[in-house]
Design a protein that fits this description.
With 189 residues, this protein is mainly α. The protein has one domain. 86% of the residues lie in helices and 0% in strands. It has 4 helices and no strands. α2 packs antiparallel against α3. The protein starts with a helix and ends with a helix. The relative contact order is 0.06.
């Protein structure tokens, strides 16, 4: 059974002889309801943030897939161009040695251009991976902060209910201090 903040606010208890103070119980229920409601709101906000981050992650993965496809296409194209260039070079060498050197230089330049493009795509892919890792790390840090804050809040509430050490000091410990004070006063006079 789920308890909502409204359930806590509307909860009523029977009165009994020597029972709890109704106003204290109502105040506590209202405080718990407010904290529970704010926690639910925060969880909902974090869920929405996480969904937005997952959507961004999905987009980044789609970009990565696109980059991989482009990279594979570029590699295949480079292989095809290289194979084609080698075939053309053999044919041209048979026909005319001077003409083949010129075509070989053009093909080599094209291959270098394609390699630069491939290297650029690899750099873009690396940037996307780093961005994704940073986003995931930020989400983890945010969740750790929320968990730490919740733990500190719980610890603070526990400490509020414990008596302080100074208030619980037994009279036996107070007596030697009073005796020392009297001795100091006597030594001064």
């Amino acid at each position: 059974m789920k308890v909502t903040p409204l359930d806590l606010r509307q909860q009523r208890f029977r009165t009994a002889f020597r029972g709890f103070d109704r106003s204290e119980v109502t105040a506590l229920l209202n405080e718990i309801a407010e904290q529970y409601e704010s926690a639910l709101i925060e969880v909902d906000r974090l869920r929405q943030d996480m969904m937005a981050m997952e959507e961004r992650l999905s987009e980044h993965r789609e970009h990565e897939r696109s980059l991989k496809t482009t990279l594979l296409t570029a590699q295949k194209l480079a292989e095809d161009i290289k194979a084609n260039a080698e075939h053309q070079a053999q044919t041209i060498v048979r026909e005319a040695e001077g003409r083949s050197e010129l075509l070989l230089e053009k093909t080599q330049a094209r291959l270098e251009d394609l390699q630069r493009e491939i290297d650029g795509l690899r750099l873009k892919r690396r940037d996307v991976e780093v961005s994704l890792e940073a986003t995931i790390g930020s989400l983890r840090n945010a969740m750790d902060f929320v968990h730490d804050q919740d733990q500190r809040d719980r610890d603070d509430k526990i400490l509020l209910h414990r008596p302080r050490q100074a208030e619980v000091q037994p009279p036996v410990q107070q007596a030697p201090k009073a005796l020392e004070h009297l001795l100091e006063m006597g030594a001064k006079s």
